[in-house]
Amino acid sequence: MIANLTDVFEAYALDGVKEYREKFPESFEGVTFDGKMYAFPYMNDNFHQTPFLWIRDDWLENTGSKAPETVEEMVELARMFKNSDPDGNGRSDTWGLGVNKNIAASDLGSITGLLSAYGIPGRQNNAIFYRRNGKITFAYIQEEAKAALAVARDMYAEGLIDPEFTVKDASILEQDIASGSLGMLYHMNWGTWYPFNLIYESDDVITRPYPIPKAEGYEYKVGIEDSRTGDVFMVSSSCKNPEAVIKILNLYYNTVEASSDADSFITYWSDEQYRLCPIYVGIPTELYAPDLFEAFEKGSGDELSGTAKSYYGYVKGFEDGSATDANAYGTWGQMFDRGSMAIALKDYRNDNAIVSNILSNDIPEIWLQNNGTLGTMVDTAYTDIIVGNKPLDSFDQFVKDWLAAGGQQTLDEMERLYPAE
Length: 421
Ligand SMILES: [Ca+2]
What we know:
By secondary structure, the chain is mainly alpha-helical. The chain has two domains: 1-44 and 227-283, no CATH class; 46-224 and 350-421, D-Maltodextrin-Binding Protein, domain 2 (3-Layer(aba) Sandwich), CATH 3.40.190. It has helices spanning 6-12, 15-18, 20-23, 25-29, 57-62, 71-83, 112-117, 145-157, 170-179, 196-203, 243-258, 262-270, 289-298, 306-320, 326-335, 340-350, 365-386, 394-417, and strands spanning 32-33, 36-37, 40-41, 52-56, 129-132, 135-138, 184-187, 207-210, 222-224, 232-233, 354-356. Strand 1 and strand 2 (36-37) form a beta hairpin. The protein is globular, with a radius of gyration of 23 Å. Calcium ion is lined by residues 85, 87, 89, 91, 93-94. Calcium ion binds next to loops.
C-alpha cells in the first residue's frame, strides 16, 4: 500500500534535502525497512520535549527574588508568589506553582520537571522506558518519585498550589496564566510561543525559561522520545507521480530553509503555512542552534543564512526593542543565548541528563492495549498522594498494582524487543 520512495528520493531530492539523512540518521532509520525508504520523516525536535521552569519576569522583580536553582528555592519562590502579592494589586489572588490535573501527562503545568530533579526521566505517560541497573524499567515507578511527590504534597498542604488543580486541565491553566494568577510553571520548550504569548500580547509580561531546579543528592534526568518514532509522510503505492512529493520538499527547502527572505520565513514558518501542505520539512530547530549560539558570542549574524539568519534577526530585534510582535517573543524565548534551546542543548546535554526513550517502533501488544489504563494509574496515584488522600507510602502499592495491571508484562516484552547491547 505504501510507495517505496528510495529511487525517487535519490533521483529528485536536492542535496540540502538529502543532507537531513546525515543530520537526523535515527529519524530516517525509522522509515527504512530492508534498506528501502518508505516515508519522509518528520524529524523529531526532541529537545522540544524537555521541561523547564517558566517564570514571569515582573513577579521575580516585584518580590526581589532570583530564579531558583534548587527545589528548596523553587518552593520558597512559590511561597513568595502566593503570599507576597507579586502582582501588587493588594489582593491575595495568586498561586505559587501552576499544576494541572494531568499531573504527569501534559506539557503545561505537569510535575515532570520536579520529578526530573529527582532523577525520574519523565515525559508524559507513554514514556519513558529506560535501562537502569541493567534492566528496562518505567520512569514513573522509580522509588525516587516519592521524594518529588513529598515536595508537591507539602506545597499543596501549604496552599501554594491551587486546590482546584484536580479539575483543571491545561486549557484552564492557560486562562489562569492569561488572567495573571499564575507566574511559575513547569512547561516545555515552546512556552513563549504558547501560552505565555497570551499575557505578553495583552500585558507586555515577559515569562522566560530557566533550567529545572535541582535536588541535592540526586542526579537530574530529563526524558525525550526516541528519534525513530514520530509522524511520517507516506505516499500511496498507486500514486502515479511520487516524485512530485520530493519536488514539494525541494520547494519547501528552497523557500523556507535556504532562503534568507524574511517574508517567506514569516509566511511559511512563523505563521505556519507550511502545515497547509500535505508534506513538509518539520524544521528541527536544534539544527540551527549551534550556528546561532556562535553568532551570539561573536555579536554578529553576518555569517548566517536562511532560517538561522531569520532567527538571529528576531532574537536581536526583540532584545533591542525593534521587534515586539508575537513571533519575535516566541523566537526569542526558544533561541536566545539562555533560551530553552540553549538550556537543553548546553545545560541538559552537557550534564548528561538526557535519557532517550527505549520504546520506539516496536511496541508491545500489551502496552498498546493497556497504556491508557496504566497512564491513568500514574496520575491517580500521584494525585492521591499530593492532595493527601493517601499516604506517601501508598506509592509502593501503586508500583505493585501498575506492574500487575500489565506493566510487568510490558517490561518483559520490552526486554525481548530491545535486548541489551
Ligand atoms: Ca495580588
